[in-house]
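Q: What does the assembly look like in three dimensions?
Context provided by user:
Components: two
Sequences:
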Amino acid sequence: MPIKVGYFVREATTNLRRNKLMTMAAILTAAVSLLLLGGVLTLGSFVASITHQIENQVEVSVFLNDNITQQQQDDVRTTLKELDVVKKVTFVSKAQAFREFKSLYRDQPALYENITPDVLPASFRVELSDPQRVDVIRSKLARNPAVEEIADQRATVQRLVRFTGLLRTFSVVMILVLLGAAVLLISNQTQLAIYARRREIEIMKLVGATNWFVRLPFMLEGIATGLAGAVIALLLLGVGKRIARSQFPVWIPTTALHGVAFGQVLWLVILGGVVGAIGSAVAMRRFLEA
Amino acid sequence: MIKTEHVSKVYRGDVKALVDVNVDIAKGEFVFLVGASGSGKSTFTKILTKDEAPSEGEVFVAGRPLNRLPKWRVPYLRRALGVVFQDYKLLENKTAYENVSFALEVIGHSEPRIRPLVLQTLELVGLSDKLDRMPHELSGGEQQRVCIARAFVNRPQILIADEPTGNLDPATSLEIVRLLDRINRTGTTVLMTTHDHTIVDAMRRRVIELEGGHVVRDQDRGVYGSTD
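A: Here is the predicted structure of the complete assembly.
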């Protein structure tokens, strides 16, 4: 059977024009839900890049007990240097620590005026070749009597990751609700289109048009609605990223905010189409049964 | 061409629309299906087009066993059938020509094939000069001719006309039946339901009479009323 592209396109666009308001509501709902999805995807890659940066900057501090011998201190240094994951070891004396502390809090003299260099512990600052491998240092040195504490910044990173995870879960729920609404609106739109064309459909079935021939125009209409939503969402996402990019200080990596990634385009377009297809399929199941 | 074996149809609430109907209609026959309203005529035609399934019994239409016909094959059954209605069921926003071409368009025929078939069929039904009229610009008889053209344009093996003259005056009714007769002469099997005495009596064709869902008469060259 020859595929009559012209026929299907004509039928689908006629219906879209016939129910302008309904179609706009459906398109906008699809657009908002897909925009939110685009936002979540962007947030994901943005946080990933920040996390990556923070993690790469992670230094591990191995704080030493007071009153240890030079021998014990050298042992710790040797142990650290023998580890594969350790890139560089720097000794920070009590005096140096105090100087850093003072410069870090120079705005708040109250914090350092009452302490002496004696209070702050000496430490080894360790740079890792793989920031994820802090555990290696812990397992080697946690029981060493010369070591008071091993500190790294992973806790900070983990808090950030946990927070964005929460945000993502919330957004996914919102997205699902909105996508559901988009499906219902598109379904309603299809239903109106079916109603408007019930006589034609009756005749089509009477003279032996196949099911897919009857359904395809409605299907295309639903898919076109979903895709229109995706296009609007992508445009808004692009604008949103441009605005967001200017809000961040230079040291934060904003590559995730440059343009709209191909993967995101793919996601939004596919999901838009799928939402449209499901929406019209729901209506057809209910109103087009043979 | 049409064969039913012990066909019964019971609607919900124990309404018996058809009871043990056995009918055998050969290729090329012209058959009147007569009976009062509620006698089961409509149910019978709906079963033939597979709009409804019988509660019991076997049905064969155009060589197809309908009980075992998968859903996706139903459109192909309908292409072997042409159906004409009392209320024409024309599309009001399409011309006479478009109403007929629509039937070919939606079963996937290409434009160059459609045009000659439509023109030829509209000429057969006598509407060559009214191709571009909208249905509301046509008389009842003319609308029924368009409906017949639409049913026949795909050259079906069977034409089912359900009360085609129900809304027409006697003279126009006779013209319509003559048209169906002409179509029958091309080899198409015609089954027409009616309760119009004059027509049945004038045509003298096979008559199958239903009463309360039972076949009470099946007579070659019959008339409407019982002969006794």
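Follow-up: The beta strands of chain B are 2-11, 15-25, 30-34, 56-61, 64-65, 81-85, 158-162, 189-194, 206-211, 214-219.
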